[in-house]
């Protein structure tokens, strides 16, 4: 079992650009959540997808958007990148809707210059 | 919304000693409390979790206690080993679609 797979592992962008991060959930999991982890801090919830719909959203601007595909994989899109968007972006999957037993991927390290 | 505070931010212990990390939460509706361990450059890994209908849960050298009245929960690691060195995060959530609210993390260093 490959667990949660995220791509790319590292990414460098400049201010104002757009970025797309990808996530494949753990086998048997149908719910995907995205978190932003700034250096030295705990992960911050961005949003959660289930049945291809955004089910809950954290305190992030509309520049952050996402999508879930029929095979449960997911994308996180960030538009108009700011320096403050530099962080580790973690994808987590879980079975069902209870948001328990989240299984995290290794993340995408995004650097905005 | 939910706010989770975690203490201490760093914890140094001698190998074989016990380590205790404490968290408090603000939302009395929270009913699920996981603990994650994150080694440098690696993904957060769930090490133990507890639901609000349980006061204590143990798994080998790790235990978690929950005090719903005081709205705090703690992680206890006994007989610490060098491989326990990592950052530990507590979190809280409630209900379906309940987002996990994480604490700021505790850097644990176990010295031989």
Write the layout of secondary structure elements.
The complex is a heterodimer of chains A (113) and B (112).
Chain A: E1 5-7, E2 10-13, E3 19-24, E4 31-37, E5 44-50, E6 53-57, E7 64-68, E8 74-78, E9 87-94, E10 103-104, E11 108-112
Parallel strand pairs in A: 2-11
Antiparallel strand pairs in A: 1-3, 3-8, 4-5, 4-9, 5-6, 7-8, 9-10, 9-11
Chain B: E1 4-7, E2 10-14, E3 19-25, E4 32-38, E5 45-51, E6 56-59, E7 62-67, E8 72-77, E9 86-92, E10 101-102, E11 106-111
Parallel strand pairs in B: 2-11
Antiparallel strand pairs in B: 1-3, 3-8, 4-5, 4-9, 6-7, 7-8, 9-10, 9-11
List keywords for this structure.
heterodimer; A: 113 residues; mainly beta; B: 112 residues; 6-stranded mixed sheet; 5-stranded antiparallel sheet
Question: How would you describe the overall organization of this protein?
Answer:
By secondary structure, chain A is mainly beta. In chain A, 0% of the residues lie in helices and 50% in strands. Chain A has no helices and eleven strands. In chain A, the strands form two sheets. In chain A, strands 2, 4, 5, 6, 9, 10 and 11 form a seven-stranded mixed sheet that branches. Chain A is globular and about 40 Å long. The termini of chain A are far apart. Chain B has 112 residues and is mainly β. Helices cover 0% and strands 54% of the residues of chain B. In chain B, the strands form two sheets. In chain B, strands 2, 4, 5, 9, 10 and 11 form a six-stranded mixed sheet that branches. In chain B, strands 1-3-8-7-6 form a five-stranded antiparallel sheet, with no helix packed on it. In chain B, a hairpin with a 6-residue loop joins strand 4 (32-38) and strand 5. Chain B is globular and about 40 Å long.
């Amino acid at each position: 079992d490959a667990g949660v797979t995220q791509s790319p592992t590292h990414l460098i962008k400049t201010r104002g650009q757009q970025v797309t991060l990808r996530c494949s959930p753990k086998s048997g999991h149908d719910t995907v959540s995205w978190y932003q982890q700034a250096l030295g801090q705990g992960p911050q919830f961005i949003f959660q997808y289930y049945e291809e719909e955004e089910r809950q959203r954290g305190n992030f601007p509309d520049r952050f958007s996402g999508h879930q595909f029929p095979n449960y994989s997911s994308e996180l899109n960030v538009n108009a990148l700011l320096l403050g968007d530099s962080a580790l972006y973690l994808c987590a999957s879980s079975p069902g809707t209870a948001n328990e037993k989240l299984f995290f991927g290794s993340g995408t390290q995004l650097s905005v210059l | 919304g939910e706010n989770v505070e975690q203490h201490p931010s760093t914890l140094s212990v001698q190998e074989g000693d016990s380590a205790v990390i404490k968290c408090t939460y603000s939302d009395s509706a929270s009913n699920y409390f996981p603990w994650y361990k994150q080694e440098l450059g690696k993904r957060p890994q769930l090490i133990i979790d507890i639901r609000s209908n349980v006061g204590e849960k143990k798994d080998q050298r790790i235990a978690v206690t929950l005090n719903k009245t005081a709205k705090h929960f703690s992680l206890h690691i006994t007989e610490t080993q060098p491989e326990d060195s990592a950052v530990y995060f507590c979190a809280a959530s409630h209900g379906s679609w309940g987002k996990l609210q994480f604490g700021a993390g505790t850097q644990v260093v176990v010295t031989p």
